[in-house]
Amino acid sequence: MNKFLLCLFTLLLLKAELHAQFNIIPQPLEVNSTSKGSFNLSDKTQVVFKQQGLEKSASFLNTYLSQFYGFSLKQSKTSATQGIYLSLNNKTGKTTESSKITESSKPAETNQTTGNYSLEVKKEGIFISAATEEGVFYGVQTLIQLLDPNGKDKTLAVPFVKIKDEPRFQYRGMHLDVARHFSTVSFVKKYIDYLALHKMNYFHWHLTDDQGWRIEIKKYPKLTEIGSKRKGTITGFLPGNGNTNIPHGGFYTQEEIKAVVKYAADRYITVIPEIEMPGHASAALTAYSYLGCTGGPYKVQETFGVFDEVFCAGNEQTFTFFQDVIDEVAALFPAKYIHIGGDECPKTSWKKCPKCQQRMKDHQLKDEHELQSYFVQRMEKYINKKGKSIIGWDEILEGGLAPNATVMSWRGEEGGIEAAKQNHYAIMTPGNYMYFDYAQTAKRDSLTMPGLTTLEKVYSYEPIPAALPAESRKYILGAQANVWTEYMNNPSKIEYMIFPRMSALSEVVWSSKESRDWTSFQSRLKQQFNRYQLWNANYYKDALENSSKAK
After folding, report:
1. How far is the CA of 214 from the CAs of 72, 95, 125, 184, 206, in angstroms?
2. Could you give the angle at which helices 368-385 and 354-362 cross, rounded to 10 degrees?
3. Which member of 19, 206, 280, 339 is catalytic?
4. 3 state DSSP class of 239
5. Domains in the chain, ordered, with CATH?
6. Single pTM value for the model
7. Bridge partners, residue 42, by sequence
8. pLDDT tens by residue, 414-447
9. What angle do CA 321, 323, 325 make, to 5 degrees?
């Protein structure tokens, strides 16, 4: 090894050690230890900010300190002797390190991301600066990780450091299914806090499915009066070894939806609602049987899987229903996107339905896949008129992709690759890497979906597929992990399944490809475990030990 390579290796090693020393997840772009020493953060410290909008970041920090350390800080718009200074600047926030990221690993659309920030801790105070409010908020999340999670007194030593950072992808998401098992508003808010603490910016809320309709639609009250309740739930793994025979239900009122959306927005998280169509329809069909091909009888499903009865694509009332639903959903969610599902829609009932077959003849559709494409494209036009765009699972590629659709690729990477080649945006969420309902260990320690997704496997994921041509890579918006709750019937189990895998995902979607290092991550994760304990969150404690064993 020549001297140049030896020096380069030494510098990289020192940099890795420095990152590990500060135990920040996701790993920032630049971390520099300016000098030895620390700033003492106490209840006498003030949070100082002058620009409007930064009160959200100050409030989040104060709430965190109050909840987990037992004290809060005075907020001020005037200078303090020593304080935490939050400020907006006119710079782009791009760091010098960004120029080192190669075009092969950094998508072109990264230039459209927001969230760049700088943070410096020195004896005069803690200074967080960014071009946007969102960037300041992410700087606060990094500051939180500089606090000792084992600190017991009301003075916290924050080590001197200088950090510059920026997100790699503009879409950094987590999903939560509340249809299979309902989650309370209080837990949904806690889940959103977990996303915020990991610098995630999208919350995909799966609100309707065969096992329950969870969102109030005022024009169709039976959706929640009838469709939100099932008589029982299977026990054991599919097909089940029994039934609880205990009713399960729950839904969110529109006022509760508004409260959750605002809660997320205050944390710079966009909530994307998912309203399933044309499949996964049992709960809605039970409430309004005329929406199906056969007219029923239907029931809110007590088991899991895929069911043949779907929304009738030949019935004009089906489209009237969904247009009415979208009217109310669009008014509740400011997000650009509405997720319309589009997955796992058997064609059995359509093949037997005279109305569906007539629709195919009228529009010269060669098969039921094209009928599904007709359904999706028709709804897309209506959703576009509401100023929204659709996201669908990768099945929406079958029969022809809707003109403005974004594809969420879950059956591997092929759907995302095909969408990007067609100049459509894609979000990568392949099941073998991004499904957090899969087991975390080969020796299954609880009831989970089949499949194994270890911590190391999540960390190893690269959202830009190697098979994707260079000119198409700009269409990969980012990645998301999915939390399907067939076998998660309480908050503790959900936490156990997402932690620590969410921490690995946060580094996949935030940190530059070149800066990611499994050895460094393992070291930093040990301190993250202490944070989980501080949060009183359940987590898989043997993730580091068993991840390598289960490759």
Report:
1. 36, 44, 47, 11, 9
2. 80
3. 280
4. coil
5. 23-165 (3.30.379.10), 171-549 (3.20.20.80)
6. 0.93
7. 155
8. 999 999 999 999 999 999 999 999 999 988 788 8
9. 70
